[in-house]
Amino acid sequence: MGLRGFQQLGGGERVTGTLALALFTAVLGSLQFGYNLGVINAPQKIIEQSYNETWMDRQTGSGPPQPIDPALLTTLWSLSVAIFSVGGMFSSFLVGTLAEWLGRKKAMLVNNSLALLGGTLMGLSKYSRSYEMLILGRFIIGAYSGIASGLVPMYIGEISPTSLRGMLGTLHQLGIVTGILIAQIFGLDAILGTDELWPFLLAITVVPAVLQTALLPLCPESPRYLYIMRNEESKAKTCLRALTGRQDVGPALLDMKEEKRRMDMERKVTLAQLFRSPAYRQPLFIAIMLQLSQQLSGINAVFYYSTSIFISMGVKQPVYITIGVGVINTVFTILSLFLVERMGRRVLHLTGLAGMCVCAVSMTVSLALLEGLPWMGYVGTLSIFGFVAFFEVGPGPIPWFIVAELFGQGARPAAITLAGLANWTANFIVGMSFQYIVAVCGPYVFLIFAVLLLGFFTFTYLRVPETRGKTFDQIASAFRRQPSLLEPVGKNGDDNDIDIETELEFLDQSSSL
Q1: What pLDDT, on a 0 to 100 scale, did the predictor assign at position 405?
Q2: Are 56 and 66 in contact (CB under 8 A)?
Q3: Could you give the C-alpha distances from 176 to 28, 34, 39, 96, 463, in angstroms and in order?
Q4: Are 173 and 153 in contact (CB under 8 A)?
Q5: Cα torsion angle, 81, 420, 392, 108, sign
Q6: What is the mean pLDDT of residues 76-81?
Q7: What is the rounded distance in angstroms from the CA atom of residue 508 to the CA atom of residue 465?
Q8: What are phi and psi of 265, to 5 degrees?
Q9: Residue 257: which of 241, 236, 243, 277 has the closest Cα?
């Protein structure tokens, strides 16, 4: 389908060579994020054995060295997994500052220094006999990913034509799942998942960092950043012409001028003002809830611990089933790429949440009955496949780019910072606590996620607007007309007595006024 598919879905908008290069280069950051999210799964037993060897080598005394206590090993492994999210939590605070201070492109360039440092530390950890070095490397690469997870969708959203913004915004998630799949394949015993080669498996993340560093100078800066934030109209026009392939960029510039005019009438938006201002409170609440719906859905429990989950189901070659999950992950992300501008963000998100809820219940039943009915392992495996597929239909890609759509240029960096913090905090909670929750809840662990998914479905149905085909200013105007959408106006309020039951209806009405 390729470029022609983009043109058909975009209502005639072209994906120029410059735009394609900028998108590819930016998504290399998403690829690294996904790679480091999934790379720790397959070599778990090998790395745990390396931890044990390091522990025994450090023992001094007359007696024989004793292996590491299993409880301590579990804690070290959980920390190795979850410290990635801690790094993301801390660095997410820097997204807005870096994006405004350096610009979107230069911030991504500087961020690659973290990827190079983190990859080097992880790659040298085995030879240095230091699991602390691996954990520190995971923290630093998590910090890289936290910044990238904010900068990449921000940059893509700002350089994409309005009619293609949803489709191109999904590329961030496609980069993540492609990175996860590559990590799973490289983690095979036949490739890099061995006792000797696993350090290279972790260190290979420096390759896309070097490639992105080489390509970023060839990419244009965000025209919206140049014009609205830096007041550099001539540079913004140059970047717009390169991205659109058109000499006449008047309509796009007019949209930015209107957004800049509105922003100039307001004070600079800080993190504290996002909470205090009624105009931002509701879109911020929606943005945070969407991020939580992604991470508290249980998907990272599957990504982090899929190998051990399949072992519990009696699968003899769990690593290959895990790769199957990665393939489904990628295929359905590509599917959502072509559906998001046809069906809309809201419908896809609702569909994904509902499907995941059903699959979570099915997983619970299969795990509970597995001991007496061995064939339930097949049901559980299919449920995991369905769980991942529905995640990539909506909850996977949509929360990343819809945050950028809900806010104007002035508030966007701060909003993405807070939304990213919520995302990474939830990621850490799931990564650190899942093994302990499994020990308590046993096969009923996914029932917890099913309840959460049902709650997020209800919230999305009642409160999340549709943003497809609307400019940033149209979306922001809808929230300005009704700052507190938690209290719908109409029957018991004012605003011309408009009867509005959901955010979708309000946004549709406001954009047609």
Answers
A1: 79
A2: yes
A3: 9, 4, 12, 21, 27
A4: no
A5: negative
A6: 86
A7: 8
A8: -80, -10
A9: 236
